C-alpha cells in the first residue's frame, strides 16, 4: 500500500507565494515520476508540473517561470514553490506519482488534494 500525503495550500493574495509538499510512503521500491495536478470544478484535471528520477522537469505553459518543482529523493518527497500567484491558479492541487511497489507493480498514485485559493 502506498500513501501520498500533501501539506501546504491555503489562501493567498494575488502576487503572493505558497509552497506545497507531498511525501510518499508505504511499500515503495522506486518512484519514476512525481508531480502535481490541479483541478477546478467542471474542468478536467491538468498537469501543473512533474519531475522524473533523473531530474527532468516539465511545466504547464501557464505556470512556467512562476512555479518550481523539486524532489528530495531520499525522503520520497516532492515540492512545488508557487510564486506570483494569480486568481486563475485557484484550484485543488493533487500530488501524483508513478510508483513501483515492493510487489513489483507500477501504478499511478494520488494524494487527497489540497486547496489553493488566490484572492484579495
Describe the structure.
The termini are far apart. The protein is an all-beta fold and 120 residues long. Strands 2, 4, 5, 6, 9, 10 and 11 form a 7-stranded mixed beta sheet that branches. A 4-stranded antiparallel beta sheet has the order 1-3-8-7, with no helix packed on it. β5 and β6 form a beta hairpin. Helices cover 0% and strands 62% of the residues. The chain is elongated.
Q: What distinguishing features does this structure have?
A:
four-stranded antiparallel sheet; 120 residues; mainly beta; seven-stranded mixed sheet; 0% helix
Q: Beta-strand percentage?
A: over 45%
Mean pLDDT score, rounded? 97
Question: Tell me, what's the shape?
Answer: elongated
Helix content: under 10%
Gyration radius (Cα, Å) is 14 Å
Number of strands: 11
Q: Which class of secondary structure composition applies to the elements?
A: mainly beta
Query: Can you count the helices?
Result: 0
- Span between N and C termini? 40 Å
Give a quick account of the main beta sheet: strands, pairing sense, barrel closure. Answer: 7 strands, mixed
Helix and strand pattern: EEEEEEEEEEE
Taking pLDDT < 50 over at least 5 consecutive residues as the criterion, the unreliable ranges are: none
In short:
The protein has strands spanning 2-8, 10-12, 18-26, 28-39, 46-52, 57-59, 67-72, 77-82, 91-101, 106-110, 114-118. The chain has 120 residues and is mainly β.
